[in-house]
Write a structure and sequence with these properties.
The protein is an alpha/beta fold and about 325 residues long. The protein starts with a helix and ends in a 12-residue tail after the last strand.
Length: about 325
């Protein structure tokens, strides 16, 4: 075609691609290229046109966890199910970026560049390499984080209304008559943990409940049977723990209560701000009072937001609401002997 039109192959590509680069091309040259294309019966290849437009109908998913959460028992797995279902409904395929997520490699310079193979990418994880993500978004790459991320104002995100859900659990305990509640959480500043704690504190203050917050970097070591007994001696009648992808806070509290020879709700009440880890869920384990995170809907909402960014549409997604779970671990405080 280039030979027939008497121009270079580059000029042919520019003309047939719509000259999105804005390079000056003489009208006579453009007309010769189009005439040659017509004579040769040229039909544009749809796949090639998508590539030329940097669009291939692929959405990326990048996890900052040390192991990509493909195991069914992983708390992120239902999110991926929602992502997959919504992506398929909107005509997109998925690319799972697993190689760069292990350890600290995600924070290395250029570690996130591989996601550009996809039209846009979803990110998830409690802790993120803010500098690398900021550079990616600053270059105009469509990205959405699953979970609130206020530290990067330029990064779009969808989140869960953890504060409201945590507050509902506290009010439930207060309605039973609990006036002193201890809250156990991991010692970091992940937004999901911060939101839960804020909801706990706001509801405790509103209900006239004394609520102490314990932040622990090593819950398995710090939250022991002796610790539980000491808090009860101080007048604490209910204990609440956060859910994380490790399940460390709830697991430590659950085992410490059992080691102390106590039972909920007979001797104390327990609340879990989220769902229990797989090894503490099901037969043999009481269903904890708390709330369930609609993870599949969270993943679907993230896909809808990302595709709206790709199509330059307004696509603000509201915070996803959690469903309260009555469970069987909360009741009235035990009577004083």
């Amino acid at each position: 075609m280039a030979r027939l039109a008497g121009v270079s192959q580059t000029t042919v590509s520019l003309v047939l691609g719509g000259n999105k680069q804005g390079i000056a091309i003489h009208e006579d040259t453009r007309r010769r290229v189009l005439q040659a294309a017509d004579e040769l019966g040229y039909v544009p290849d749809p796949a090639a046109r998508r590539l030329a437009a940097a669009r291939n109908n692929l959405l990326g998913v990048f996890s900052f966890t040390t192991t990509f959460p493909t195991a069914v028992e992983h708390s992120y797995y239902p999110i991926l199910v929602g992502v997959e279902q919504e992506a398929a409904a909107q005509g997109y395929d998925l690319v799972l970026f697993t190689g760069s997520s292990a350890g600290r490699r995600a924070a290395a310079p250029g570690a996130l560049d591989r996601v550009r193979l996809a039209d846009g990418c979803l990110f998830l994880g409690r802790h993120i390499p803010a500098q690398e993500l900021r550079k990616l978004v600053a270059h105009g790459y469509p990205a959405v984080h699953i979970g609130r991320r206020d530290e990067l104002a330029e990064l779009a995100w969808v989140g869960v209304d953890y504060a409201a859900a945590a507050a509902e659990v506290v009010r439930h305990l207060a309605d039973f008559g609990h006036h002193r509640i201890a809250y156990v959480r991991e010692d970091d500043d992940a937004p999901a943990s911060t939101d839960r704690e804020q909801g706990f504190r706001d509801a405790a203050a509103g209900a006239g409940v004394h609520g102490g917050v314990v932040r622990s970097a090593r819950p398995a070591t710090d939250i022991t049977a002796e610790w539980v007994r000491a808090r009860r001696d101080e007048g604490v009648t209910a204990f609440v723990a956060e859910e994380t992808d490790t399940g460390a806070a709830w697991r430590a509290l659950y085992r410490a209560v059992a080691a102390a020879g106590l039972e909920a709700p007979r001797d104390l009440s327990l609340g879990l701000l989220g769902s229990p880890p797989a090894d503490l869920n099901g037969p043999g384990h009481p269903e904890p009072t708390g709330f369930d995170v609609p993870r599949a809907e969270l993943g679907a909402a993230a896909v809808r937001l990302l595709t709206s960014l790709l199509c330059a549409r307004q696509g603000a997604e509201p915070l996803v609401t959690c469903a309260f779970r009555p469970g069987v671990t909360a009741g009235a405080p035990p009577r004083s002997p």
